[in-house]
Amino acid sequence: MNADIQEYNNAQVASDKAICNLLANEIDKGLPEAENKIWHKHPVWFLDGNPVVGYSKLKDSVRLLFWSGQTFEEEGLQKEGSFKAAEMRYTAVDQVNTKDLARWLKKSRDIQWDYKNIVKRKGKLERLK
Questions:
Q1: Would the pLDDT of 114 be above 80?
Q2: In the chain, what are the domain boundaries?
Q3: Distance between CA 63 and CA 20 in Å, rounded?
Q4: Which CATH architecture does the domain made up of 3-110 adopt?
Q5: Distance CA 75, CA 71 (A)
Q6: pTM, full prediction
Q7: Where are the beta strands (DSSP E) in the chain?
Q8: What is the per-residue pLDDT across 69-78, written as a single tens digit (0 to 9) for each?
Q9: 119: how many CB neighbours lie within 10 A of its CB?
Q10: pLDDT digit string (tens) for 32-42?
Q11: DSSP state of 128
Q12: Interior angle at CA 75, CA 70 and CA 81, nearest 5
């Protein structure tokens, strides 16, 4: 695991740390080719410089975010924001369904919107895959 991501996870309370560690390990397993780093203070995985998945500690949960998740057509993911992102929130490690997560990670590779160039395109998203 990326040392900065491990440091982020270690800074969480025990229950949230368990969620973060599980998410990081499953994301690394599902997207072994992805670059990962702390981006805007949160762990994020990138494919060809484009953010695809990450997680963050919220006040009451750990939020798993897929930048193109609304396009996955998955009932378990909730719409987030005004672009194409979708999320799942967890309050306990046993809530993480690793089969669902593996499927979402596959879709995050196959279905992508171009967030890398959103500023250059003045807020307009274009589909990459």
A1: no
A2: 3-110
A3: 9
A4: Alpha-Beta Complex (3.90)
A5: 11
A6: 0.91
A7: 35-39, 42-47, 50-57, 62-66, 78-79, 86-90
A8: 999 999 899 9
A9: 8
A10: 999 999 999 99
A11: -
A12: 35
